[in-house]
């Protein structure tokens, strides 16, 4: 029997969309981060984030987002800002009832993006 993916364990697309909505609510409520999203197409960003989380969770999705460095280069994101965004994603996953092991697996994929996103 195939082992169940994290994606299906956490509830599939509906659950991922709920996590992403919660995540962006948290991020946009933070004055330190909200400016990064000024003038951005939030519907497109949400769709990319749903794709990304689905892909790292083993869902039936190929992540088609721009190269991470290229997509974030102009934003000049600091390490502490990256970490803060990560904390909000982790909180959204936990609040959605994702178990610790799956949260860790998703967050390790996110952590791997820190060097290209902060430009190191």
UniProtKB/TrEMBL annotation:
The keyword Heme appears for this protein: yes
GO MF annotations, alphabetized: metal ion binding
Keywords linked to the UniProt accession: Heme, Iron, Metal-binding, Transport
Any matching Pfam family: Bac_globin
UniProt cross-references to SUPFAM superfamilies, sorted A to Z: Globin-like
InterPro entries xrefs: Globin-like_sf, Globin/Proto, Hemoglobin_trunc, Hemoglobin_trunc_I
Signal peptide: none
Family assignment from sequence similarity: Belongs to the truncated hemoglobin family. Group I subfamily.
Protein name: Group 1 truncated hemoglobin
């Amino acid at each position: 029997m195939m082992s169940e993916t994290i994606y299906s364990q956490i509830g599939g697309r509906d659950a991922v969309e709920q996590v992403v909505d919660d995540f962006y609510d948290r991020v946009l409520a933070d004055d330190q981060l909200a400016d990064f999203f000024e003038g951005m197409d939030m519907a497109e960003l949400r769709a990319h984030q749903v794709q990304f989380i689905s892909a790292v969770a083993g869902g039936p999705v190929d992540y088609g987002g721009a190269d991470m460095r290229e997509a974030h280069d102009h934003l000049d994101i600091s390490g502490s800002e990256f970490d803060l965004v990560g904390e909000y994603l982790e909180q959204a996953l936990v609040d959605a009832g994702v178990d610790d092991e799956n949260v860790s697996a998703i967050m390790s994929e996110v952590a791997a993006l820190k060097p290209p996103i902060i430009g190191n």
